[in-house]
Amino acid sequence: MFLRLFPLLGLLLLAGCTVTQPQRQQVDWQQERTRLERLDHWQLSGKMAIITAQQKGSARLNWQQTGDDYRLNLTSLIGTSILELSRVQGQVSLTDNEGKLHQSQDAEALIYQLTGWHLPIDGLPEWIKGLPGKADYNLNPDNSLASVRDGQWQINYQDYRDQNGYRLPHLLNMTGPQSRLKLQINEWVLQP
Fold it and tell me: What is the pLDDT of residues 148-157, one digit of tens each?
């Protein structure tokens, strides 16, 4: 009889155990912020979900940052192009899903005009690295960025991953004008 209860007791004991995430080592916020501000050549890939009053959608995201210039590709989950946005020396170009080229100096207005999406393109290069820019912000207990409030945008950082000596965002939620965005970063590539 006791031998039959032994496996049951083992299962109950295991069920009572909880798994806790290890506490992250604290970072020196000012030092980390300075390091992240100097990081201006990087690329990432991930997924983005967008919810507006009119539509819900998701896309694969590839972003390449080179100084002040960038290239953003959004594709559907099956790989078809949604848009390609690039900024070179202050000039913004967007190629839509039909291959038509559009140009402007205002990336956010151009994307809204063509898709109806409010995407905070101007703030993303900083926010995506875990920087608040000049906006109000709060820190996590480990001194990583917890949230940013910049004008109409609220950015909440849900998860970080350590890579190449940096603590970089892995999951961000953004709420802005008639839009909610969720960004999951799967891979960072950092260039010195």
Answer: 999 999 999 9
The secondary structure of the chain as a DSSP string is: -HHHHHHHHHHHHHHH----PPPPPP--HHHHHHHHHH--EEEEEEEEEEEESS-EEEEEEEEEEETTEEEEEEE-TTS-EEEEEEEETTEEEEEETTS-EEEES-HHHHHHHHH-----TTTHHHHTTT--TTSEEEE-TTSSEEEEEETTEEEEEEEEEEETTEEEEEEEEEEETTEEEEEEEEEEEE--
| CB atoms inside a 10 Å sphere around CB 85 | 22
